[in-house]
Model the fold of this input.
Amino acid sequence: MSERGRGSIWTLVACLIGTAAAPVSAQDLADFDYENLGFRGVGFDLGWMMPTRVEPTTAFGARMDLGYLGPGLRITPTVRYWSSRMEDSEVRELEVRLNELVDRQSPAGTPPANVDLGQIDWSDFALGVDAHVVWSVPFGLLTMLGAGASAHIMNGEGAAIVDTFIEDLLDSITAGFNLHTGIEYPVNERLRMYGMLRYELMGDLRYGTISLGTQFMFGPAAPGEIR
Done:
């Protein structure tokens, strides 16, 4: 099939979805107010993270559903955690730079430096807030698209870097920004299943995550959320 043909098919699919989709909650624009927020449920998810600089790993997450700030605009504070090993190429590059630094500062005739950093692990504990627009679509599904901001508490560990400036560089608190989309299925009034795709940007580390989760509802559903 030609590129033009494939593009036409995707355009048609997008139009059909857009026609069938309806924003959740029938609030007016004047209803954008924090008074509409309230604890409704909590979700837990497990995902697979594909990052730069560290090896792919499992990611754990939780979210709190605070309901809708405005028409279809849902607010969900999040907690996320992952831990992984830095890629060998990243560690080797750091070793090369350290060797060059030591050699430049060593007296003439000194044998070349041979820094061995071994294995370095890096972990991230993130606290954030997501805001996404939710639509109801056919087959009783909800879809979402949004963005979020977070604070990442990074921690580097390794036998060779304990109490060194390298550990200090890896230990940091960094701001992050994410884009995400997902689909949600209300099994019943108290239980939902959801899948998420998330792309996180934070300094010189970026990663995508695909995750599946379950949310337990304790508060009332909004208009348009019930199947």
In short: The longest strand covers residues 121-137. The helical segments are 3-20, 88-105, 165-170.
